């Protein structure tokens, strides 16, 4: 029955809150901490209403509790849909990624249950769920346990612990370690130690399976290394002496474990390693004097849940004889929850088990605790303040007493009662899925350890009573598998996959139950499902395939009872199978039943024909369902004629000839059964031809291949061919494509060497007339393709070729003409076919290229094609000029003049020459190999000036092989002034080009100046501005290579031209565009300022007669603008110089600090001879100290060849830091220099260094203020840190030019090329950024 304990029974360290408040607060916390971070691990679980709502908390107490049957029959108020579990739980080393289980230990009493009042008969769960659990004996481990007891006196097994390894403890103190293949890896301990410590009473393996803790019956604890088998710790003082270890558990922290002794106390063991010595510190968490604890369970989390906010508390659940406690070990010891049992049977034992479950899209730990026949579930959450909340969930009331509780995944639990029966329960629906008897395991009980018999039995009577049926250490779970330790064996149990459950029912001939179970999988109503993954549609498709297999199996069994004789209607009425399949559109199943159960092969065809024939005869479009049926009909006919069963398998050999004859006879029937008077003859063949002509003929073609030597089959073939001709040729309701398919099929059959078919040749002539009929212009492409396919299939032998060509030309079947001309090697005529065919005319270029370039054709054939192409060159150019140019360049390169002569149309000639000569067209033409004369290029330029003058300059820039004088004459002829100026500039006549541009500019300015005031149109300055910009660009491009006088000859006339309109305009009546002209004039001044000195510009302006007569105010704006520009440039120059000086000063300061820092040797002895440098005073030896800290005698370094002469200076390298292959790279290896491994300027100390001031030579050498090579290299490295020119070069350039009066920042030196200046370099960039930090 289901009830809820009172709120007062739950004591929390937090203030009391309602369940609603706790839930809301928990959800808000986890929205920020763990929302969707853990749910991905269990994404296939359904998370709906796992908690009880508020109304259920107010359920009143009832005198008579409801029975389990009434609970199971209740509607599912949680409304949880189909839940999937992980399918990979069949091996020991497999972990359920969708199930967050922790190791769980449970116990219960074994009292007599004859006095149970609530026991009722359960529903037959086997018929509903099948066999949910699969249990098997681990034969390898079981045999070795028995062998160890016999051969090495290991004793009987007492405890088991499972991780990726399996550990079994024995009564004589041995621990047997097995791997996943049941092979014995280690045997830890000895019988002598067992005699001292007693039996192993508890085992625990840490999370990474590297350590094993063994607890003994006499109270000792040992720790073993599972990789090497070494004993790491032997702990004898962790708890009071004289008590047995009941439980020992690793926590998630590998340095922390919990143990529980028979005195009822709980201790925390902390493992440390100090100075290589392993120690263990013990702290009492709970004293047995306050209530004996008999079960402990720390919360374990999988690696993917290590970041869960709950794990930081290291929770521990403890069960005493009176209450449940949940405490946190970290960050400090704290009790989070206590829960008293109330009245309980004193012989029942508390059980604890943690598991991570997903509720409302959040994953949190859930604690299951039980004693007797009630299981409580507590959900643990963490709120925003960091406190723990414990929320009650539905509890489970049973009719049997428990001795073990194990989570197998988040929705399924396995319970063991006191009579050793396993009960598999779905947690959320509380439905019992299966009951399994495991008495054959002969489960090991831990009663002797609870009674502490090894230490004299000094335990309380209550604890001894609880331990009567204690089996804590005999059951261990890992990865969705449960291991049971028997006295001579080890068993493992796991959930079966959904396929296993169905197959298990099928093996027991429970076909109906298997189909019902599969249907529950399909509908998502099954429990404890393993092995189904993916979305709902994918799962349904997988289960549906299995259900079809079950149906076939069911049909096989049912059809074995089918009567051998009798009317088919009687059998249909008897079995109802065929009708059921037809109504549910199971056409494959229907055919299968007819074939396998009744040996009837014609009836399925009749049924399908009745569906698809009426709409086809009426000319209607078939529905999707009817198309499916028609396709199945074709496949079925093909299978029958090939001797194969449908949909799989083979027809019995003795029935194959009979089935073939029946199908042939059926197809060639003159009329169908129950035919109407209006039915046309041969309805079945007619229907199949209308449905899919090509596929039906393919079926016949395959059939004809299989029956070459069968005389009767040959007769059927001829008969079917005659019927096909009669049906299709004599009726006009078939399309040309369908008729063509028939004659293509016939042509292929007639072309076979062993052909036995006969077809009247006049029929082919009729088909030719039908396809080439000039009166019918519809479906022209379709008729041509059909005739081409017919000819390619071998039908050419059925026609007279000359007549065929005439009819094809008349019908404009150019592909047919090409096919025939190619047979006769008349390749030149094929060009006409391409040119006349609008669909394929562009393919003519590839065809001509292939004929002329691919070997295999005779010279005469190639010559005819070449001549034909030359004759049609104008058509080819009109079709695709670029393709025609490529073709001419490849195959007609020596006859380009001839091609040009043939192109009388000037527009076509222009397009052709542009494709041939302009490289921008993208045609891969090698101009050098083509060797085009300048006359042709100049002809193209003349056409370019006529038809596309706007592109003349761009084209001339990429063209080659043209003469400048002739080209200039052409451009002057067509008055293209910009083009003429470009050519003059290219010729070198800069002044002539400038005069043309200036004249054009003046004419445009004159147009604006003389613009009438009454003109309606507003004259635009766009043309003036464009012409001026082009003129300025001309002057800028060429000023670099001109002297000062030549520059002034360019710029001053331009300035004068721009100022002339302003001089003519009256001051009283300003011109309409005066402001715009002033702006353009200012643009000219700014542009020329980079090439003409400012005084020269001002002098020229003031020398003007107009401005020299007192009109200076009119150019005041121009002069002020020039002065502003000059001031800006001067300020920019001064600021830049200041920044560069500061930057250089900073760099040199850092460099000086780096090279003058003292060296600190690591030792006071030579790193080679290992003698102190002071003790070798008898030798005039110098001491070499490197910045890496190593110290050497110079003689020792020389003996190791660590010195070399470079540029007259001695270069040393550190012997320890540098290998011999680096010595030759001293000048290049800047990184070695920076690290101090290679240095030319070491600190040298003579033996008398500490006694005298050194010799005069040394003083003189050290006093010279010059940079040595290392300092210069370091300075260069600093300079390279800045991209671009060095600061020193910039300052040098600035200082040189500032001394010149005519200097301007970006003009370059006068009279010389400007590229000698750093500032005129196109890659010059001024980067005003903070200097980088260099290494010391």
Describe the structure.
This protein has 1336 residues and is an alpha+beta fold. Helices cover 42% and strands 15% of the residues. The strands form ten sheets. Strands 3, 21, 22, 23, 24 and 25 form a six-stranded antiparallel sheet that branches. Helix 19 runs antiparallel to helix 20 (736-750), helix 38 (1022-1039) runs parallel beside helix 40 (1074-1088) and helix 40 runs parallel beside helix 42 (1116-1155). It is flat, with a radius of gyration of 52 Å. Residues 1166-1218 form the RING-type domain. One of its GO terms (molecular function) is zinc ion binding. Residues 1228-1263 are annotated as: Disordered.
Low-pLDDT runs of 5+ residues are 1-123, 1012-1018, 1220-1265, 1298-1315
Largest sheet: 6 strands, antiparallel
Q: How many helices in DSSP terms?
A: 47
- Specify the overall morphology: flat
The gyration radius over C-alpha positions equals 52 Å
Question: What's the end-to-end separation, in Å?
Answer: 80 Å
Mean pLDDT: 75
Range of helix content: 40-55%
Structural class: alpha+beta
Q: Tell me the fraction of residues in β-strands, as a range.
A: 15-25%
Care to count the β-strands? 39
């Amino acid at each position: 029955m289901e009830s809820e304990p009172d709120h007062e029974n739950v004591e929390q360290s937090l203030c009391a809150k309602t369940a609603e408040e706790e839930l809301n607060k928990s959800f808000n916390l986890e929205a920020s901490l763990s929302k969707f971070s853990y749910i991905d691990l269990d994404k296939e679980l359904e998370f709906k209403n796992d908690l009880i709502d508020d109304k259920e908390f107010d359920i009143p107490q009832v005198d008579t509790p409801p029975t389990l049957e009434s609970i199971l029959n209740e509607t599912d108020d949680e409304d949880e849909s189909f839940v999937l579990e992980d399918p990979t739980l069949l091996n020991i080393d497999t972990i359920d990624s969708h199930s967050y289980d922790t190791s769980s230990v449970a116990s219960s009493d074994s009292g007599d249950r004859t006095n149970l009042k609530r026991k009722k008969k359960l529903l037959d769960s086997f018929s509903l769920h099948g066999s949910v659990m699969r249990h098997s004996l681990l034969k390898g481990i079981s045999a070795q346990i028995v062998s160890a007891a016999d051969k090495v006196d290991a004793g009987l097994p007492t405890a088991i612990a499972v991780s990726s390894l399996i550990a079994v403890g024995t009564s004589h103190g041995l621990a047997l370690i097995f791997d996943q293949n049941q092979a014995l890896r280690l045997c830890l301990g000895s019988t002598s130690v067992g005699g001292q410590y007693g039996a192993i009473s508890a085992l625990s393996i840490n999370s990474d399976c590297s350590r094993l803790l063994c607890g003994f019956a006499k109270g000792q604890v040992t720790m073993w290394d599972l990789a090497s088998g070494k004993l790491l710790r032997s702990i004898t003082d962790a708890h009071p002496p004289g008590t047995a270890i009941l439980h020992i558990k690793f926590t998630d922290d590998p340095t922390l474990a919990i143990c529980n002794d028979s005195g009822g106390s709980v201790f925390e063991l902390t493992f440390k390693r100090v100075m290589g010595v392993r120690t263990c510190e013990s702290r009492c968490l709970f004293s047995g004097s306050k209530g004996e604890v008999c079960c402990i369970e720390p919360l374990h989390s999988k690696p993917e849940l290590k970041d869960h906010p709950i794990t930081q508390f290291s929770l521990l659940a403890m069960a005493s004889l009176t209450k449940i406690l949940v405490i946190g070990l970290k960050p400090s010891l704290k009790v989070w929850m206590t829960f008293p049992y109330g009245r309980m049977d004193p012989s029942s034992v508390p059980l604890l088990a943690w598991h991570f479950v997903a509720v409302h899209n959040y994953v949190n730990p859930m604690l299951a605790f039980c004693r007797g026949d009630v299981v409580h579930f507590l959900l643990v959450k963490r709120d925003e303040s960091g406190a723990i909340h414990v929320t009650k969930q539905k509890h489970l009331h049973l009719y049997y007493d428990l001795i073990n509780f194990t989570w197998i995944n988040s929705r399924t639990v396995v319970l063991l009662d006191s009579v050793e029966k396993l009960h598999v329960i779905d947690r959320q629906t509380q439905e019992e899925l299966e009951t399994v008897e495991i008495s054959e395991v002969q489960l090991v009980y831990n009663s002797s350890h609870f009674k502490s018999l090894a230490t004299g039995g000094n335990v309380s009577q209550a604890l001894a009573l609880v331990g009567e049926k204690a089996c804590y250490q005999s059951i261990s779970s890992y990865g969705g598998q449960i291991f049971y330790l028997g006295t001579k064996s080890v068993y493992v149990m796991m959930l079966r996959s959904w396929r296993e459950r169905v197959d298990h029912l099928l093996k027991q001939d429970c076909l109906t139950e298997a189909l019902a179970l599969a249907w529950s999988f399909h509908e998502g109503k099954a429990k404890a499902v393993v092995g189904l993954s993916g979305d709902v549609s994918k799962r349904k498709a997988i289960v549906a395939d299995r259900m079809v297999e079950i149906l076939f199996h069911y049909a096989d069994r049912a059809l074995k009872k089918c009567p051998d004789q009798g009317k088919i209607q009687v059998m249909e009425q008897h079995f109802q199978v065929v009708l059921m399949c037809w109504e549910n559109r199971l056409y494959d199943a229907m055919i299968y039943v007819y074939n396998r159960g009744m040996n009837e092969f014609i009836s399925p065809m009749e049924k399908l024909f009745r569906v698809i024939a009426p709409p086809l005869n009426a000319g209607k479009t078939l529905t999707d369902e009817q198309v499916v049926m028609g396709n199945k009909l074709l496949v079925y006919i093909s299978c029958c004629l090939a001797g194969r069963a449908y949909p799989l398998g083979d027809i019995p050999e003795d029935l194959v000839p009979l089935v073939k004859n029946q199908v042939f006879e059926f197809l060639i029937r003159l009329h169908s059964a129950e035919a109407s008077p209006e039915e046309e003859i041969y309805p079945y063949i007619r229907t199949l031809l209308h449905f899919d002509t090509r596929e039906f003929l393919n079926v016949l073609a395959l059939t004809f291949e299989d029956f070459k030597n069968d005389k009767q089959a040959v007769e059927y073939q001829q008969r079917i061919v005659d019927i096909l001709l009669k049906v299709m040729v004599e009726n006009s309701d078939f399309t040309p494509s369908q008729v063509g398919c028939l004659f293509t099929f016939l042509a292929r059959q007639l072309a076979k060497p062993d052909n036995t078919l006969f077809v009247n040749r006049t029929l082919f002539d009729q088909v030719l007339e039908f396809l080439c009929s000039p009166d019918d212009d519809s479906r022209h492409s379709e008729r041509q393709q059909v005739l081409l396919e017919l000819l390619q299939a071998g039908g050419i032998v059925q026609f007279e070729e000359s007549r065929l060509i005439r009819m094809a030309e008349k019908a404009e079947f150019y592909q047919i003409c090409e096919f025939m001309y190619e047979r006769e090697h008349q390749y030149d005529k094929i060009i006409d076919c391409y040119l006349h065919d609008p669909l394929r005319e562009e393919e003519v270029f590839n065809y001509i290229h292939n004929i002329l370039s691919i070997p295999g054709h005779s010279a005469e054939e190639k010559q005819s094609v070449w001549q034909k192409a030359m004759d049609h060159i104008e058509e080819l150019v009109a079709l695709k000029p670029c393709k025609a140019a490529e073709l001419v360049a490849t195959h007609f390169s020596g006859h380009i003049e001839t091609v040009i002569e043939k192109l009388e149309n000037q527009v076509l000639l222009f397009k052709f020459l542009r494709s041939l000569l302009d490289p921008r067209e993208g045609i891969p033409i090698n101009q050098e190999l083509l060797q085009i004369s300048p006359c042709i290029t100049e002809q193209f330029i003349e056409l370019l000036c006529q038809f596309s003058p706007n592109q003349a300059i761009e084209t001339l820039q990429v063209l080659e092989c043209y003469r400048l004088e002739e080209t200039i004459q052409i451009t002057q002829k067509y008055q293209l002034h910009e083009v003429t100026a470009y050519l003059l500039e290219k010729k070198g006549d800069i002044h002539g080009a400038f005069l043309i541009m200036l004249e054009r500019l003046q004419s445009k300015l004159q147009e604006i100046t003389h613009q009438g005031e009454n003109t309606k149109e507003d004259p635009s300055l766009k043309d003036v501005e464009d012409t001026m910009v082009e003129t300025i660009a001309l002057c800028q491009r060429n000023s670099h290579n001109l002297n000062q006088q030549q520059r002034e000859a360019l710029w001053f006339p331009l300035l004068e031209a721009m100022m002339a309109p302003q001089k003519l305009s009256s001051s009283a009546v300003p011109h309409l565009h005066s402001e715009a002209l002033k702006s353009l004039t200012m643009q000219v001044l700014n542009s020329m300022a980079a090439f003409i000195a400012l005084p020269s510009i001002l002098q020229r302006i003031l020398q003007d007669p107009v401005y020299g007569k007192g009109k200076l105010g009119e150019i005041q704006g121009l002069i002020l603008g020039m002065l502003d520009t000059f001031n800006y440039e001067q300020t920019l120059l001064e600021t830049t110089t200041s920044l560069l000086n500061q930057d250089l000063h900073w760099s040199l300061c850092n460099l000086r600090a780096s090279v003058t820092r003292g060296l600190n040797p690591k030792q006071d002895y030579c790193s080679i001879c290992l003698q102190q440098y002071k003790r070798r005073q008898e030798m005039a030896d110098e001491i070499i100290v490197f910045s890496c800290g190593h110290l050497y005698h110079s003689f020792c370094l020389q003996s190791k060849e660590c010195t070399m002469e470079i540029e007259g200076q001695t270069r040393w390298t550190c012997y320890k830091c540098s290998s011999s292959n680096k010595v030759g790279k001293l000048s290049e290896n800047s990184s070695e220099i920076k690290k101090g491994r290679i240095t030319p300027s070491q600190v040298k100390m003579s033996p008398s260094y500490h006694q005298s001031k050194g010799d005069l030579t040394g003083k003189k050498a050290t006093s010279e203020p010059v940079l040595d090579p290392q300092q210069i290299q370091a300075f260069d490295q600093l300079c390279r840190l800045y991209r671009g020119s060095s600061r020193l070069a910039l300052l040098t350039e600035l200082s040189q030019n500032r001394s010149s009066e005519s200097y301007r920042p970006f003009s370059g030196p006068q009279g010389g090329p400007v590229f000698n200046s750093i500032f005129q370099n196109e890659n010059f960039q001024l980067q005003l950024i903070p200097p980088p930090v260099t290494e010391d």
